[in-house]
Design brief:
The complex is a heterodimer. By secondary structure, chain A is mainly alpha-helical. Helix content of chain A is 65%, strand content 0%. Chain A is built from eight helices and no strands. Chain B is elongated, with a radius of gyration of 28 Å. Chain B has eight helices and seven strands, in the order αααααααβββββββα. Chain B starts with a helix and ends with a helix. Chain B has a seven-stranded antiparallel sheet with strand order 1-2-3-7-6-5-4, with helices on both faces. Chain B is 48% helix and 21% strand. The chains are: A mainly alpha, B alpha+beta.
Chain lengths: 175, 270
C-alpha cells in the first residue's frame, strides 16, 4: 500500500473528519484496483491515486463546484496583513524562523480554516511534493490557477499564523 | 518589475517552478526590493513548515488493516467455497433439503469451529510469544552462529522440519536466538531476529493454510503462486504463508504492508 500516508493526509484535509477521511482512502484503493488497467506503468502512481481520491470526494461527498472564479472575493484581502504588506523595521534575523517552527501544530488548524480552493493546491504542492503541472492535472484546473491559488493561499495561511506570532512576540517582550 | 507583479512569481520561485528568464527577472527584482526579498524568505519558511506539519500526519494503523481486510481490494482467496459448490449442487437434488441441512450441521459446523479455533489458538500463541520476547520473558536458546541455532532447533523437533529462514542481512537484522513452544500438541519453532532497531519473530510448524485466522486478509502472489495471510492485533502484525508441509508466521511491529512486502520478497515458493 504505497502512498497511504500521503492519501490519508490529503483526505483528512478534504473531509476534515478522520472517519470520513479513512472511508475516502479505502474507497480510493477500491476504485484504483477496479480501474487499474487505466494506469500507465511508469507514470506517477501517487498522482493517479490522488486524482482518484479527489474525484471520488467531489463526486460523492462534496456537491459544491470545485473551482470558484479567481475574482471571487471569498477572502477579505483588505483587512488582513501579510508578508507583502510591510517589511519589518529591523532585519528579522533567524529568530523569526524559530518562531515559525513553533507553529507546526497550528498550521494543521489553519489549513482547515482556509477556503478549499486555496487549501488543495497547498496540500498537493507543499505536503505532497507535486509539481504545478501534476497538481493542475489532479485538480482538473489550469496550471496558472495553481500558481495564483498557492500565492494567495500561503498569504492567507500566513495571516492566520501572524496573529499567533504576534502573541508569541508579546510574550517574549514581557520576559 | 512592480512588487504586485512579483507576488506570484515569488511563489513560483519558492516552488522552483520558473523558467530561466522568469527566474532571472524576479531575482533581479529581489536584489533591489527588500520588501519582496522579505516576502520571499517568509514564504519559503512557511512552505517548509507546512511540509513538516504534513510529515507528522500519518495514516492510523487501523486504516491499513481495514484496507487489507477489504475483500473488494484483495478479493482472491484460494480454496473458497466456489470450488466445492460444484459438488454440492448435484447432491441437493438427490437428498431432501432437511436432510442436507442436518448433514451440514453435523459435519460442517464442528469442522468450521475447529478450524477457526485452531487458527485463532496458534495466532494467539504467536502474539503471546512475541510479547514475551519483547519483555525478555521467554527463555531462548542462544547459539554461536545461525547454523548452530538452526541445528539446535531441528534437533528439538527430532529432525521433522527446520525453522523457516529469512535472509535479512541487508537490513542488518540477524537471528539472535530460538525457542520451542507447543500448541495443541504441535511443536512450534521460534526464531528471533533482531538488529538495526528492528525485531522480527518467525514461527515455524507443521500445518496447513487452514491454520490462518479466519479474519486474516488473503493475498495471492501471482508470481510465486502462493497465498499470504496478513492479520494484526494490538499494534502487532503477522504474515502467514506455507512452504510444503510447513507453515511460517512472521510477526513484527513493522507496518503490516511493509511486513507483507518483506515476507513476499524473502520467501521462495516450495
Amino acid at each position: 500500500m504505497a502512498h497511504l500516508d500521503h492519501l490519508y493526509r490529503v483526505a483528512l484535509y478534504l473531509a476534515k473528519e478522520p472517519d470520513e477521511a479513512q472511508d475516502l482512502v479505502q474507497e480510493t484503493y477500491v476504485r484504483a484496483l477496479a480501474s487499474y488497467e487505466q494506469f500507465t506503468p511508469g507514470s506517477n502512481m501517487k498522482a493517479w491515486l490522488t486524482r482518484i481520491l479527489h474525484n471520488f470526494f467531489f463526486d460523492n461527498y462534496h456537491q459544491k463546484k470545485r473551482w470558484i472564479s479567481v475574482e471571487d472575493n471569498s477572502v477579505d484581502e483588505e483587512e488582513a496583513s501579510d508578508y507583502w504588506e510591510k517589511i519589518p523595521a529591523e532585519n528579522p534575523g533567524p529568530e523569526s524562523h524559530i518562531l515559525l517552527k513553533e507553529l507546526n501544530a497550528k498550521i494543521a488548524d489553519v489549513l482547515r480554516k482556509i477556503p478549499e480552493e486555496f487549501r488543495s493546491p497547498i496540500i498537493l504542492v507543499d505536503m505532497g511534493d507535486f509539481s504545478y503541472a501534476e497538481a493542475a492535472e489532479i485538480l482538473s484546473c489550469p496550471l496558472g490557477t495553481i500558481r495564483s491559488r498557492l500565492s494567495r493561499g500561503r498569504r492567507l495561511v500566513y495571516r492566520y499564523l501572524k496573529e499567533y506570532v504576534d502573541i508569541q512576540e508579546k510574550m517574549r517582550e514581557k520576559k | 518589475m512592480k512588487c504586485e507583479e512579483a507576488q506570484e512569481l515569488v511563489t513560483a520561485l519558492v516552488d522552483k517552478e520558473l523558467s530561466d528568464p522568469e527566474r532571472s527577472a524576479v531575482e533581479s527584482h529581489l536584489r533591489d526590493c527588500p520588501r519582496c526579498q522579505w516576502a520571499y524568505e517568509q514564504e519559503g519558511a512557511l512552505k517548509r513548515e507546512i511540509r513538516l506539519a504534513g510529515e507528522n500526519l500519518r495514516a492510523p494503523g487501523s486504516l491499513r488493516v481495514r484496507i487489507l481486510s477489504d475483500r473488494r481490494v484483495f478479493p482472491e482467496r484460494v480454496g473458497s467455497a466456489q470450488g466445492w459448490k460444484d459438488y454440492v449442487w448435484p447432491i441437493q437434488h438427490i437428498f431432501r433439503p432437511a436432510l442436507v441441512v442436518a448433514l451440514l450441521l453435523i459435519f460442517t459446523v464442528p469442522m468450521v469451529y475447529w478450524l477457526n479455533h485452531r487458527g485463532q489458538s496458534i495466532f494467539l500463541t504467536a502474539l503471546e510469544t512475541y510479547d514475551m520476547i519483547l519483555r525478555g520473558d521467554l527463555p531462548m536458546t542462544k547459539a554461536k552462529n545461525t547454523q548452530e541455532l538452526k541445528e539446535q532447533l531441528i534437533r528439538a523437533v527430532d529432525g521433522k522440519f527446520a525453522p523457516m529462514e529469512y535472509d535479512l542481512s541487508s537490513m542488518k537484522v540477524r537471528p539472535v536466538g530460538g525457542a520451542v513452544r507447543e500448541v495443541e500438541g504441535r511443536k512450534m519453532l521460534v526464531t528471533v531476529y533482531e538488529g538495526n532497531g528492528l525485531s522480527f519473530t518467525c514461527f515455524t510448524f507443521l500445518g496447513t493454510e487452514k491454520d490462518a485466522p479466519k479474519n486474516a486478509a488473503v493475498f495471492f502472489d501471482r508470481e510465486k503462486r502462493m497465498n499470504f495471510y496478513a492479520f494484526s492485533s494490538g499494534g502487532v502484525h503477522a504474515v502467514l504463508h506455507r512452504e510444503g508441509d510447513v507453515i511460517c508466521i512472521l510477526v513484527s511491529k513493522m507496518p503490516i504492508d511493509a511486513l507483507l512486502a518483506l515476507a513476499r520478497g524473502k520467501v521462495q515458493p516450495s
